[in-house]
Design brief:
This protein has two domains: 2-38 and 46-200 and 350-363, Ribosomal Protein S5, domain 2 (2-Layer Sandwich), CATH 3.30.230; 207-340, GHMP kinase, C-terminal domain (Alpha-Beta Plaits). It is 31% helix and 22% strand. The protein has twelve helices and eleven strands. Strands 1, 2, 3, 4, 5, 6 and 11 form a seven-stranded mixed beta sheet that branches. The longest helix has 17 residues, at 235-251. The protein is globular. The structure holds adenosine-5'-diphosphate and ligand LJ64HWYM. The ligand N[C@@H](CCOP(=O)(O)O)C(=O)O binds at residues 11-12, 17-18, 103-105, 107, 141, 143-144, 222, 225-226, 271, 304-305. Residues 11-12, 17-18, 103-105, 107, 141, 143-144, 222, 225-226, 271, 304-305 line the site of the ligand N[C@@H](CCOP(=O)(O)O)C(=O)O.
Length: 366
């Protein structure tokens, strides 16, 4: 059996909208087994795949492999390599502790896991850059998927592709991940990703800095949080963010950390001000908390598209989290909070002994 582990991630870290990602120590886990000695059951299970799920969102996540984001992504990878379905008797058990729609990269982790799943069951042996190409065909901003795939604190960029490749990359998601009714295969080949869609660069991270995630009890879909953003920005606001982003990539590696520099480097004018309409307590939190007012705090921002708040800190986690939790409480919103660390390894895959939990037969290792 294969065990695939993919970390959650916090994108943007203030000014690095669609650029910066930080992989964090909360992991989506997949246990995958294949029994190619058993016959395929084409009438009941045309995609040859059974999905089980535990963890966050167990009541809501669609376990039909034709609809589930993770298995659809794997199927996309397989179909680009002329494999129309999973190998016979594939079973995938998903264990997901990452809150959904909270700005902690649950969809990015699911997409990375799906690409790794397609790669392993299809025995495709794709390179790391090619895995990233497949991820970027599904989740089109690179910050979460690059952090989840490669690990650590990363900066990402997309290449300027030639017009044909650009057109392939921009086909609607419904064509990349067609949703066949009842799993019936349309026989169409999906768009093959262009080569080298995106790249990443890893930055150092000071060992003293922990990431405090304060997770409100409501969802904001990333798609919705992108719709509230303007189509263009003033030169002044772009320069404001670029100046801070240039600082951010190095000040978070300084040991000991410099709180005032980090606080300044995490200011943003291109996404957070527009997202406050979706996250009631955001303006009060950002305007009232700083290293001067709260010992141990280094900087504070919206995690990804929100609503989670990410506070970088060296100590005093309970007190800092308590203040943020109270701001949400004042708006009638409850929260949970966690202290996380950078997930340096990114996504990993290894063979482990045993059966997929709850599966009915004994399965051989792939
Ligand atoms: N493990 C998973 N399996 C299947 N679908 C998932 C999984 N994780 C996330 N998703 C899908 O991604 C959606 C959340 O994505 P998104 O709005 O981008 O928020 P975020 O990535 O910030 O959590 C979920 O509602 C669900 O549809
Ligand atoms: N750069 C993206 C990041 C979205 O992250 P998520 O964790 O909320 O999916 C954005 O800010 O829209």
């Amino acid at each position: 059996m294969h065990l695939i582990k993919v970390p959650c991630s916090s994108a943007n870290i203030g000014p690095g909208f669609d650029v910066i990602g930080l992989a964090l120590s909360m992991y989506l886990e997949l246990r995958v087994s294949v029994d190619e000695t058993s016959p395929a059951d084409a009438s009941n299970n045309p995609l040859n795949c059974t999905v089980t799920y535990t963890g966050v969102g167990a009541e809501d996540i669609d376990l039909n492999p034709a609809n589930n984001l993770l298995t659809r992504t794997a199927l996309y990878v397989l179909r680009c390599h002329n494999q129309r379905a999973f190998p016979p008797q594939t079973h995938v058990h998903i264990h997901n502790p990452i809150p959904l729609g909270r700005g902690l990269g649950s969809s990015g982790a699911a997409v990375v896991a799906g690409v790794l799943l397609g790669n392993v069951v299809g025995k495709l042996n794709l390179s790391q850059p090619r895995l990233l190409d497949f991820c970027l065909m599904v989740e089109r901003h690179p910050d979460n998927v690059a952090a989840a795939l490669y690990g650590g604190f990363v900066g990402t960029y997309l290449n300027e592709l030639d017009p044909d490749d650009m057109a392939r990359k921009e086909v609607p998601l419904s064509e990349v991940l067609p949703q066949p009714a009842g799993g019936v295969d349309t026989g169409l080949t999906p768009p093959i990703p262009p080569e080298n869609i995106g790249h990443y660069r890893r930055f150092d991270w000071a060992k003293e800095i922990k990431a405090l995630a304060i997770i409100p009890d409501f969802e904001v879909s990333t798609a919705k949080a992108r719709e509230v953003l303007p189509k263009s920005y003033t030169r002044q606001d772009m320069i404001f963010n670029l100046q801070r982003l240039a600082l951010l990539t190095t000040v978070l590696s300084d040991s000991p950390p410099n709180p005032d520099l980090i606080y300044s480097a995490m200011q943003d004018k291109i996404h957070q001000p527009y997202r406050k309409t979706l996250i009631p307590a955001l303006p009060a939190i950002l305007s009232s908390m700083s290293p001067t007012s709260h010992k141990g705090l280094l900087g504070i921002c919206l995690s990804g598209a929100g609503p989670t708040i990410l506070a970088l800190a060296t100590e005093n986690f309970d007190a800092i989290a308590g203040v943020i939790v109270q701001h949400f409480k004042d708006e009638g919103i409850t929260c949970e909070w966690k202290v996380l660390e950078p997930a340096e390894d990114g996504a990993t895959i290894r063979e482990v002994p045993g059966d997929v939990p709850g599966y009915r037969t004994s399965l051989k290792t792939v």
